[in-house]
Structure formats: structure tokens, C-alpha cells
Amino acid sequence: MCRAATCRKCGKTTWAGCGNHVDQVMRNVPKGERCTCSANAGKTAVGAQPSGGSSWLGKLFGRK
Where does the source fall among the domains of life (predicted)? Predict the structure, then answer.
């Protein structure tokens, strides 16, 4: 599930999570308050966990 997060670069609202619920998360955020950083793609938002080998599930499947 996706959730609202704060962009580390601009401080505006972005999203974190699986990507399947972005529309639901961002629908109540005014366009002027949304992150538009082109560098935001693939970056970790404040409070979000980086994906990959740092989780127990990533370790279970051998991702590093």
C-alpha cells in the first residue's frame, strides 16, 4: 500500500510504497504542494524504507 511522504529535496508531498495506489494517495494533495522533482524517481522519501536487501524479506530471497 502506498502512503504520503515528504520529498527530501524539495520538502513537498510525494508518495512511498508499491506504486499501485499513487492516485489514491495524491488525490487530496493540491498540485502546488506536490513534489515535481525529476530526480525524485527512484529516491527514498523521508521516513520510507529503501527497497532491496535491507529488509528481512530481501535477505530471505538473497537480495543485496
Answer: Bacteria
CA 11 to CA 33: how far, in whole Å?
Answer: 9
User: Phi/psi at 37 (nearest 5 deg)?
Assistant: -65, 125
As a whole number of angstroms, the distance between CA 63 and CA 56 comes to 10
pLDDT at residue 60 in the model: 77
Rounded-to-integer distance, Cα 24 and Cα 43, Å: 20
What are the sequence ranges of the domains in the chain? 3-60
Q: What is the pLDDT of residues 3-36, one digit of tens each?
A: 999 999 999 999 999 989 999 999 999 999 999 9
**Measured distance CA(10)–CA(26) in Å, rounded:** 16
